[in-house]
Protein 1
Amino acid sequence: MNNTTPASQTQPLEDESKYAASARNFRQNVARDLANDELRSNFRGAMDYLIDKRQSAFSDQDELETLRRQCQLIKQRCLVKLPLLLEQLEQQLTSNGIKVHWAETITQANEIIASIIESKQGKTVVKGKSMVSEETALNDHLEQRDIECLESDMGEYIVQLAHEHPSHIIMPAIHQNKRQVADLFAKNIEGFEHTTDVDALIQQGRKVLREKFCHADVGVSGVNFAVAQTGTLCLVENEGNGRMCTTVPDLHIAITGIEKVVESLNDVPPLLSLLTRSATGQAISTYFNMISHPRQTGEKDGPKEVHLVLLDNGRSQMYSDPELRQTLQCIRCGACMNHCPVYTRIGGHAYGTVYPGPIGKMVSPHMLGLEATTNLPTASSLCGACGEVCPVKIPIPKILLRLREESVKPVGDIPLIMKGQGSGRKPIEASVWKAWAAVHQSPTLYALSMWAVTRARAILPQKLGPWTQARTAPKVAAQTLHERVKLRNSQKQESGNE
Amino acid sequence: MTLTNSQHQRHYPAPPNQIYLYGTCLADTLFPDSGIDAIEFLERQGIEVIYPQGQTCCGQPAYNSGYTKQARTVAKQQIKQFPLDIPIVVISGSCGGMMRHHYQELLDGEPEISQFCDRIFEFTEFLVNVLKIKLNDNGEPERVALHTSCAARREMGVHLTGRELLGQLEHVELVTHPYESECCGFGGTFSVKHGDISIAMVNDKSQHLAETGVVRYVSADWGCMMNINGALEYQGKSLRGEHIASYLLNRTQTKEQ
């Protein structure tokens, strides 16, 4: 690393700060998107639809609960064995002929992928949907190296045409309605016949993509489950583009996070069943790909070379704390965001991070540091709708609380749990809570301050910051409940004595 | 939405002669009527109600803000105020959830913390599951909506007991508002730290409640009601929320009372 040129030192920083910078703008992003009525109605409509779909897929509550518990245990077991399973996965994949690469940072992951492509003189890439490649901002990186990258998932394709990022991890273009997509296609697709019929729209988009598949040098995909015992990469998708990306080009590069490893093939069916039903309400996805090796002698298709890049990017940090480790149970179904009242209001882009919604609030602080993401864990009413639907029972509100705690800890507190720990601590807020605790742990001080507040009720401020921008100020009672009870008891006693 | 959350399944004791009332800091300062109404209602069921004067706040505001140490100090102080082995009835689902569930983690290792948490009952939960109450409705025919706080719903199962109680009132028609299970946007310090998101949520909630055409809604949580009533008043709407303790007290009042 000592020999790196200044240029390559600044490059990774730019990559890494892209999402950190937009996460820092959370408040501005929220204000912008809350004011966009069309966007809000797009999200509300789409989330209502997804909530209904999920609900009808889980008609049997007992079955759902049993399955959730089973999958929670599967993921917890695989996490306990994670170092071992990763080693086993590497061995098995290698003996199957798939080359494994390890990346600690997103910069390393991008560098690995670009080098593989360049070593094969690759110029064009078709990508299946992969949130981890969004995490590394792979498209930007490849573009800088003159490698063309085309998103082949319809939602991702729309987002790419619009120069945007996915606003949802399962439905990347959910923030756009059909009219907006038609306008986008009209601007970008030659010979587009104007329509707002969803099927006709998609067909025209697909025609463009089909052409690209035939000529791409490289296919890039994500992975939903990486099976350690057999060295199998499982890919869940609905459009067939995942299969095209992983079979047509001669070179297939898969990228995923280290937490996607499971122990055996037996672990896959329950997880898959929960994943598709939680995500889109489907009993099973249209395609389920299992990739175990490159094209073998005698086979007519399939890539000649397959690589897997395993990315850390903050995951080891999540792993090292027993409570935060549960974050890694996530199977990326998106149910938490579909049910989140905050996500429904502000949409996916306001978070500024790759992963929006409750899952984003949990993982982004590890990926980008708590300093850049300090507004995310607090942007929750802790209503618990996310935890209630999480297929692997991640206690999301509890983890958000924990992140709040890490954020306001005194700087330098030991042990260091995470990057940016203590960065959200404001001296004024800390003193307010200290004073609050002093008052509320002393019945005498509490009684005194309540006495003062009730006596001062007429002169208390009527403007209470954001509260009174949409609500009247609450009115302090003339007498506290404590006083009323005391009075009531003494009156009772008097009437009893008479 | 059906809930099969195991947190709701608990063993309920026989109806006691004596209970503690946990009034909550919100009711203490802003809405003391609800506390008095809860006491009167419980006394009318033949139960002696003890209201310890040393109680302050359950600690939830600090706990939810990440100030765990401060929350712990205050929580410990609460426990000291309730020495007798009798139920502690809380007139708020979220404070109840804090004391019943979060105290376990916050005060892990404290002697007899589990026994303390086991004595915590939310007001409607206590009426339905411990007292197995049968209500006599003496009120005029009315349509009402029910708003359940998220903590109450998901930690205490209070949407079920609230519904059950309103269902017992012969002349009351319970109206379900759109997005009934959705959060009102209060969330304690969330409503101040992320004011604009909170406002978007409470504006929707108040609109959904108003759409039902009821003249009043009931709830067992003053946090949500302070939020929703504040928004309704700001919007110039006449709809208001009433604490379920006051509502039940008034409706079951016999004429001569």
Protein 2
Amino acid sequence: MKTKADFPNINDRQPEGLKDDGNPFRVLIIDDSMFVTKQINQILTSEGFEIVGSANNGESGVEKYKELYPNIDLVTMDITMPKMDGVECLEKIIEFDKDAKVIMISALGKQDLVKKSLLIGAKNYIVKPLDRNKVLERVVTTLKKQ
Amino acid sequence: MRVEYINPFVEAAFSILKEVLGDDLSRGELYLKATSQPILGVTAIVGLAGDVEGRVLIDLTEKTAMKIASAMNGEEMTTLNELAKATITELANMITAQAVTKLSELGFTFDLTPPTIITGEKMEITNYEVEALIVPIETSHGKLEINVALRERN
């Protein structure tokens, strides 16, 4: 006969968005698409992450990062944006904080820009379309990287 | 217009729609239009300029656009609001970006414009110097047409 131990309580799992001290990881979303911003927001908040800000172009993305620093753990960064694109925005954020953890969000076909971003200092990238598992896996891996 | 230009867009549309809608899709018969043609009501247009030039439309009815946007957002949308338009824009973005990768592998280089969404009834699009190839794709949310008018730059 099966006992309670055969049915582990799935709710015992610690949400991925919480640090060891129980506080949430804080994320800034820089993306000009309302749809993508909402998608990332939904995926991350459902796992306990806190979205501390969002920006819809690179220029205000840099400003937001500086404003939030040091109370920020991660940035998700679109590549194609008006005013200042994601690569330049990344450059400026890394100039300001060389340890910044930035994940590039890219459509397929932008491999050159993704490579360039990784050389500049982006820690990871995600190719769209986004889905929950893909986003969480990359975000968690990136936060664990020192 | 060479058929090899449209195939990357159709393949990309299939793979992206399958991924975002988790859907069974079927491809309709390819057809060609030389002059004016009606467009369905919600149209994402992306321009290409480089070794090949022209435009690509992702064309659907307002009803289908709302159903696809609802499915992609996981919430019911009853009007074609800003979020619904941003969703269709993103869909066009993903399809064209993936298609471009395939066209680049064929040796073509060119730039893309960001997608623009046009909405309205009884609209037509006219191409004088290049005919358009159209491939309808049936999804469980309705029909979507990939409409490509491209030519090689001499």
